[in-house]
Design a protein that fits this description.
Length: 273
């Protein structure tokens, strides 16, 4: 058996792989592996983006808290997310229009051919796919959205601008509710703190989820709004979740509420930023 190894800050994740299914170097170094225990796995520039076994853990926690915080999300923007998992979860809320802005067309094509986790979501008639830089899209955007979801990679030359203060500020102008993945505050502290410093919303909350194949399993998300509170209300969330008849693997309204309860060390880190 061969091993894929992802290194970060003096530690590493090792995943047994059967074979490399696809590889291409374009804007990013794209690899798709068939693993021993996690199904197929997407890797960009040496970083695990998803495995079939636990991708729902991530995509559900990225999407549903923000979508359920909004009372009637009809128009949604997804930035990044070329694998289609975020769009798949967004469609469970029956929006009228979803725009996905993904800079790397090769990621979309590779994931469609070798993963297919979108379940046909990217071919849904309500979904428009735009191959453009997300920062440029929001900078020149003349429309607004109920929810903006940022499903970016670890900051790299392609995605670094997606954690800039200019980007977050503009997203706040065009959205009712904004959410982004915000890295591991434990294993990637510098990335997490950069996002905290730059993502300044009138109402802002960090929440946590567990993704086994991400750095040390602890993953964070940041939700914000300049127009309404993003503090979770369990009864409202539960009523919307049941009313929309959403089916999930990881997410529940109870998990939603619990995910906003942070350990002391993380609360202190957020307060310092």
């Amino acid at each position: 058996m061969e091993w894929f190894v992802e290194y970060y800050n003096g530690s590493a994740l090792m995943i047994g792989v059967k074979k490399l299914i696809f590889e291409k170097k374009s804007l990013q170094h794209i690899q798709i592996f068939d693993t021993v225990d996690f199904g197929r796995m997407l890797v960009l520039d040496g970083k695990v983006q998803l495995t079939e076994r636990d991708e729902a853990f991530y995509h559900e926690m990225l999407v549903h808290p923000a979508m359920l915080t909004h009372d009637n999300p009809k128009k949604v923007l997804v930035i990044g997310g070329g694998d289609g998992g975020a769009v798949r979860e967004v469609l469970k809320h029956d929006p009228e229009e979803v725009v996905m802005v993904e800079i790397d067309r090769d990621v979309i094509e590779a994931c469609r051919k070798y993963l297919g986790i979108d379940g046909g979501a990217l071919r849904d008639g309500r979904v428009s796919v735009v191959n453009e830089d997300g920062v440029e899209f929001v900078r020149n955007c003349g429309e607004s959205f109920d929810v903006v979801v940022v499903d970016g990679t670890d900051p790299n030359p392609v995605s670094q601008s997606l954690i800039s203060s200019e980007f977050y500020s503009r997203c706040g102008e065009i959205s009712e509710i904004f959410v982004t993945q915000s890295q591991s505050p434990f294993a990637q502290r510098e990335y997490f703190e950069a996002i905290l410093r730059n993502a300044r919303f009138r109402s802002r909350r960090v929440y946590l989820g567990f993704v086994p194949t991400y750095p040390h399993g602890l993953w964070s998300y940041l939700m914000g709004s300049n127009r309404r509170s993003v503090v979770p209300d369990y009864e409202v969330i539960r009523r919307r979740f049941e009313g929309r008849e959403i089916k999930t693997i990881y997410y529940t309204p109870e998990v939603h509420l619990a995910s906003f309860v942070l350990p002391k060390w993380l609360e202190d880190m957020i307060e310092r930023c």
